[in-house]
Specification:
The complex is a heterodimer of chains A (558) and B (258).
Chain A (H helix, E strand, L loop, with lengths): L4 H22 L9 H11 L8 E3 L9 E3 H7 L2 E2 L5 H6 L1 E10 L3 H12 L4 E4 L16 E2 L8 H11 L6 H20 L25 E2 L5 H15 L4 E4 L2 E9 L4 E8 L5 E11 L23 H8 L4 E2 L4 E10 L11 H4 L4 E2 L13 H14 L4 E2 L5 E5 L2 H7 L3 H5 L1 H8 L10 E10 L2 E3 L11 E3 L4 E2 L10 H23 L7 E2 L1 H12 L7 E2 L9 H6 L11
Parallel strand pairs in A: 3-22, 4-5, 4-11, 5-8, 11-19, 18-20
Antiparallel strand pairs in A: 1-2, 6-7, 9-10, 9-21, 10-11, 12-18, 13-17, 14-16, 15-16, 16-17
Chain B lengths: L23 E6 L2 E6 L4 H7 L19 E6 L6 E4 L9 E5 L19 H7 L11 H5 L6 H10 L2 H8 L7 H5 L6 H16 L4 H11 L4 H8 L3 H10 L19
Parallel strand pairs in B: 1-5
Antiparallel strand pairs in B: 1-2, 3-4, 3-5
The chains are: A alpha/beta (558), B alpha+beta (258).
The structure holds flavin-adenine dinucleotide, iron/sulfur cluster (SF4) (2 copies) and FE2/S2 (inorganic) cluster.
């Protein structure tokens, strides 16, 4: 393994230009940052969020007229996977519960725990294994104003400034107010935070923070949160039933227009079944696996926007879905690690970005979106990217510079997880550069909610990456793990309270809203065979798909 | 790989484009032979072969534990273990994935369970049956000293269990192999939680802050921000005091908002 001979040949150009670059770095000189006008120009031409191509206005639904990536609009402008008439729907009911939680990541599991704590019986249904989610992948940390020199006030300012002042204020208030409360909750549940001997929580800065408030558990913060929450949910099996490999494919309503549960697909037996619930929480996470404009992603296998699609059909508007976070440095080689995140820290420690000729083309500490756009420009417009044996394109991130600037051993010490990850494939990043390209990282927007996580459809709540507004157009690192625990908990509590207040509970299930949506599609002239939600991405080769000739049951076989 | 790369088709999403001349090697997925590119991981090679995963695929990045895999190489008796998303295929690999392994899990109430050897003995008595064969350690794709943490658990040394098992992704491969039928990863999870809850001092400053929040100390400060217009917020944002990177014992000048 390791780099191919051709790539090693190209790396010689990087090595050749390195001494001079190091000299300059030592003198504190760097590549000239772009002017504001320069930034705008490159963003407009190359950043997927800004350039016109690849986006279009959605023709139907509560956010009609808003412009989103084509891949996402395709899913919104699709038909239901299954439309059942009302009489038959009652027969599909397999579970009845107080609160249904859709999605088994950090937001969903927090919601389940709090709903149970407030006396509700819960069914948590999730598409993959409980915990197979973006939450386990988060390495960096979780924010919260827990230190004496900090307060929710400063956290608020950082969040809203970071979001270019576009964030929904009441959501930012909830986020920063509850932050210390959830850190304390996690501590009490037995999460292994990084601490000093006296118990003081260790904190660091993150991009855009005015006080140090990033809490961590090694470089596995999300994984540790997920493990602890999942373990606690399993301890509450008296109140919480977990259904795995069950994908929600439609929201169900009752004849009074309230959310009354959801329709599910058993991914293994291919049966459909319904869960009738008095309240429902959508916590299905993000949409990285839509691979907007072909981008690789840091997201897990199930990040396909299902909850957004079914929530939208049920009448919930979307907030901030025009905005997506691309991380400038995702792995472009080796193929095994495609799309995985390489932390900002590498550039922070002084590593340059270089084209095929070993030349610098961008200042390393531009804002994330500008940095991404410049890399895309260098590769696709100027044709100065490096092409890999598996058809990827990328630029060099010169990590060996760190060994010179920070001293021998610095790479291994400062970036232990990355070092090991590459060493698995015989690439020693303290000696050779990494190949990187922007990667689809985070869905800034989602279902519109208020600070109680209500969506506007009675009985339907939303939390976590599937909801939008709290981060505005830009999320700061460490605020998403916070978002999912704060709003996950609020959703669980709100749903349980809502259930308590319900009168005349039983009423007929219906999919009328889906029928109306179909009619709207037709009226808008959208002719399509597409069905959604996507449920899973399809990575089957085209050659194979061409021969998968049966799509319906024929005889005894599918 | 020349500079005239204009017409080169760029790979998108998670589907690789294979260059001409890529070597294909035979692998056996549950005994069935497929020719796959030699550079792919087991996970991607399985997709290349035409499978669509439902189980055995989660993060695709080595951290969720969904894709534990056991394999042999044709003609060699050694049994190997790995994560399908992290292990590159080899010629004549015989593999199957173990996306689920039944493991008994003890239900406990963390509020009422002490961080002691007694709790472990009561909830996971089988831990005493370890025969020190070290098979669990050899099976672990995360290179965890599994047997060592089992031994520490026997002695009630929760700190050591917590430290040694911290990287566990709960793939279950260790428990699939243990002759003493121990369910290592559930045991370790409980130990880590009990350790963090009862053996590590809880953060005093956090308790204080929670008290302040519950006494509504920040409610009006936050409400003022919620009600502020764009220009006011921008000014407050730009003027906010920044804690230095390498500060020790730093204090802000303005303490009115703390
Ligand atoms: C590599 C990486 C690093 C990150 N680092 C950080 C960090 O350091 N700090 C930080 O704050 N944030 C970080 N983030 C962001 C953060 O981890 C996520 O935004 C957050 O965990 C999302 O949590 P969630 O519960 O909303 O969604 P998820 O954790 O993604 O959970 C969604 C769940 O819903 C399930 N689901 C999906 N569709 C359906 C359906 N149709 N039916 C049933 N279930 C369904 C999924 O299978 C999954 O279990 C990172 C993200 C990634 C990918
Ligand atoms: S300790 Fe066991 S469950 Fe945990 S990672 Fe290792 S083999 Fe998997
Ligand atoms: S495999 Fe089981 S018996 Fe063998 S060392 Fe590990 S815990 Fe002990
Ligand atoms: S898919 Fe998550 S560890 Fe392999």
């Amino acid at each position: 393994m390791g780099y191919t001979p051709e790539m090693l040949e190209l790396i010689k150009r990087v090595e050749k230009s390195r001494p001079e670059r190091i000299e300059r770095a030592k003198k504190g000189e760097h590549f000239t940052p772009l002017t504001l006008a320069g930034r705008e120009e490159v963003l407009g031409k190359f950043h997927p969020d800004y350039k016109k191509e690849g986006r279009r206005a959605v023709k139907v639904g509560p956010s009609k007229g808003e412009s989103y990536p084509d891949e996402f609009v395709d899913l919104l402008e699709s038909k239901s996977r299954l439309l059942v008439d009302d009489a038959a729907l009652q027969d599909l009911v397999a579970y009845e519960t107080d609160v249904l939680v859709i999605g088994g990541g950090g937001a969903g599991t927090s919601a389940a725990l709090l709903a149970a704590e407030h006396g509700a019986k819960v069914v948590l249904a999730t598409k993959l294994r409980h915990g197979d989610a973006n939450t386990v992948m988060a390495e960096g940390g979780i924010q919260g104003a827990t230190q004496e020199v900090d307060s929710p006030y400063f956290h608020y300012l950082d969040v809203i400034g970071g979001g270019h002042f576009t964030n929904t204020p009441e959501l930012v208030e909830a986020l920063t107010h509850d932050a210390p409360l959830v850190i304390e909750w996690l501590e009490r549940l037995g999460m292994m935070f990084d601490k000093n001997a006296d118990g003081r929580l260790r904190v660091r800065h993150g991009g855009g923070t005015s006080r140090k408030r990033m809490h961590s558990a090694g470089d596995m913060t999300g994984s540790e949160i997920m493990r602890v929450l999942r373990d606690e949910a399993r301890n509450r099996q008296d109140m919480i039933t977990i259904l795995e490999f069950s994908a929600a494919v439609e929201i169900l309503k009752d004849t009074q227009g309230r959310c009354a549960g959801a329709l599910f697909y058993n991914m293994e037996t291919e049966e459909y079944f319904a869960i009738r619930a008095k309240a429902t929480v959508v916590a299905t996470g993000g949409y990285g696996r839509l691979h907007v404009q072909g981008f690789a992603t840091t997201n897990h296998y199930g990040a396909t926007a299902d909850g957004l699609v079914i929530g939208y059909r049920a009448g919930v508007p979307l907030a901030f879905m025009h905005s997506t976070q691309y991380h400038p440095t995702g792995v472009a080689f080796p193929e095994q690690n495609i799309g995985l995140l390489i932390t900002e820290k590498v550039r922070g420690l002084g590593a340059n970005l270089l084209n095929i000729n070993g030349e610098q083309f961008v200042f390393e500490r531009e804002p994330r979106d500008v940095e991404s756009a410049c890399i895309i420009q260098e590769c696709l417009d100027r044709n100065k990217g490096i092409i890999t044996p598996t058809g990827r394109i990328g630029v060099w991130l010169d990590s060996p510079m760190i060994e010179v600037l920070e001293g021998p051993g610095a790479v291994k010490q400062e970036l232990p997880a990355k070092y090991i990850q590459f060493m698995r494939y015989d690439i020693d990043i303290s000696k050779v550069p990494m190949l990187v390209y922007p990667t689809l990282h985070y869905q800034n927007g989602g279902l519109q909610i208020n600070n109680l996580t209500e969506t506007g459809v009675p009985g339907l709540f939303g939390a976590g990456e599937a909801s939008g507004g709290v981060h505005g157009e830009n999320r700061l690192m460490g605020n998403s793990l916070l978002d999912i625990t704060v709003f996950g908990r609020r959703a669980g509590r709100s749903a349980a309270e809502y259930v308590k207040g319900l009168e005349n509970q039983s009423s007929t299930l219906t999919m009328d809203h889906v029928r109306q949506f179909h009619a709207e599609l037709q009226a808008a002239g959208v002719e399509t065979n597409r069905v959604s939600p996507l449920v899973l991405p399809n990575y089957t080769r085209e050659e194979t798909m061409e021969k998968q000739l049966t799509t319906h049951y024929q005889g005894g076989m599918r | 790989m020349s500079e005239g790369q204009k017409e080169f088709k760029i790979a998108t999403g998670d589907r690789a484009i294979l260059p001409e001349g890529t070597r294909l090697v035979p692998i056996y997925i549950m005994g069935k032979r497929y020719m796959v590119p030699e550079t792919l991981t087991i996970q991607k090679a399985t997709e290349y072969a035409g499978y669509q995963f439902i189980r055995a695929c989660g993060c695709r990045g080595g951290i969720c534990g969904a894709c534990g895999t056991v394999y042999r190489i044709l003609g060699d008796y050694h049994l190997h273990f790995g994560l399908a998303c992290q292990t590159v295929v080899q010629e004549n690999m015989y593999l199957t994935q173990v996306p689920f392994f039944p493991a008994n899990r003890a239900v406990y109430n963390i509020e009422e369970t002490s961080a002691t050897a007694e709790s472990i003995m009561k909830l996971y008595p089988e831990v005493m049956k370890c025969v020190a064969c070290n098979t669990c350690t050899k099976a672990c794709p995360m290179d965890i000293e599994v047997m060592e943490y089992v031994n520490a658990a026997m002695r009630g040394d929760l700190a050591k269990v917590a430290r040694l098992s911290f990287d566990c992704i709960q793939c279950g491969l260790c428990s699939s192999r243990c002759p003493a039928q121990i369910q290592h990863f559930h045991l370790a999870q409980m130990c880590r939680r009990l350790y963090a809850r009862y053996k590590v001092p809880q953060a005093e400053h956090l308790q204080n802050r929670v008290g302040e929040i519950n006494e509504h100390k920040y409610d009006t400060l936050l409400l003022d921000l919620v009600g502020s217009d764009h220009d006011t917020l921008r000014k407050l944002y730009v003027d906010r005091e920044m804690e230095p990177q390498d500060s020790v014992g730093w204090e802000p000048q303005d303490k009115t908002k703390l």
